[in-house]
């Protein structure tokens, strides 16, 4: 058994920020990631940048932007479900506590003259996206991962998949206020299950994109943090609000994951690119659905895509970047320009085929103002958390700075709070009468069925018939998966399919509970937004989803 002071699960923006903040306070940190620290996370794929209102030397907003405008844009995107106090706090702290902190670590954002280069993205009323070309995530993760690897207070454990959290109530059969004691984690290389004891556990395992057939997320995004927290008894909030990105490269012949998930930043549309239904068209078809056209928020643009593709029998739509000057495309959007050039497309003169794909979960584990949860010592960060910032949909580029901000806040909260060293001896993993898996066909079948069910029955357009059918399918599948779990040794592949099945059931139940259409949750049988659902969808283990005002 490993005894740790602090353990962080996940190595993206949130996990690395928490680990570095803890280490700076003198804490010994063990950082567990499912793959490789730098490559295997959503953060490295963040193309656009970080939304923040730049401040001058006097701490006041510079230029024509303001806190009030950023707050207004965020609340508008969230369609009445944001926590206004959290939104205000984040907007006022994104620049001093995120951008300046990252710059001190060594991140170099693009500049024009003496000021920052600012992009404008869909839903933003001002240019406030701080970036490094169109590879901001990669640039930031390079700095964060290097800082983690070189920090003597941080011990890195790559190729580890979390299985379940260990809590005091669950272990000792108690009731009342619960406390985290550690977790079980699967070593992907050795095939062994390790027992980890920790006073503080920080869950930052990222998104759930692999729940769906098409996603911009990497293969590691199987909703692990959502699932383990739900099994530990924590509340999950607004899980029906799954955001799809409207501009992912369409290539049906692509055989590698990167070729299937390449994402074109929203800043392209902010700079003048637009979506059209055919290669030769000059019409922005999104204008039929919103006055801002292709500059609208993701939920509006993606819904317009879905409707038009179904109506016209299209496999894709086209992103036209030809209105953007060539020198800007080749410099500020160099990654997108070069990717397309390798595909035989010059985006300075030719449109690009794109489709929508799952991109971001707006819901997550309910947390407090510091990422803390109802279980003492357990913090949830990043995309796995629901902080109240996003509401019903995420304003573009708000999530990156949210990850860093709450990663730091959670670490600071843990450091400030007095802790009694954990004294309970944790049981080692017991295989019982389990056997090794001899036939992996069942796992492949579960994996395929879960993802196809979610894509076809609980995707962008939903209704009672589809959701009910999806619920029935998942009930049978999860029953079979539960039996499989107890009869065979765990593997990384099985743990992942177990988690996507759990998360899928939660999303379906949450979608059934919300009988309205709001932001990225669209019900064909309830096409309008309703005041009766002006609240959060809450679901907990052994319960059903319900709307809490």
What's the average pLDDT?
93
What is the level 1 CATH name of the domain at 245-358? Alpha Beta
Poorly predicted runs are none
**Taking Cα atoms only, what radius of gyration do you get, to the nearest Å?**
22 Å
Q: Number of helical segments?
A: 15
Helix content: 25-40%
Shape: globular
CATH superfamily of the domain at 245-358: Succinate dehydrogenase/fumarate reductase flavoprotein, catalytic domain
Identify the CATH architecture of the domain at 245-358.
Answer: Alpha-Beta Complex
- Report the sheet with the most strands, covering strand number, pairing sense and barrel closure: 7 strands, mixed
* N/C terminus separation: 43 Å
What percentage of amino acids are in beta strands?
15-25%
Q: Total strand count, please?
A: 23
User: Structural class of the secondary structure composition?
Assistant: alpha/beta
CATH T-level topology of the domain at 245-358: Flavocytochrome C3, Chain A, domain 1
What does this structure look like?
This protein is of the alpha/beta class. Among the domains are: 245-358, Alpha-Beta Complex (Flavocytochrome C3, Chain A, domain 1), CATH 3.90.700.10; 441-548, Fumarate reductase/succinate dehydrogenase flavoprotein-like, C-terminal domain (Methane Monooxygenase Hydroxylase, Chain G, domain 1). Helices cover 35% and strands 18% of the residues. It contains 15 helices and 23 strands. Strands 1, 2, 8, 9, 10, 11 and 18 form a seven-stranded mixed sheet that branches. The longest helix is centred in the last third of the chain and has 24 residues, at 464-487. The two termini are 43 Å apart. The mean pLDDT is 93.
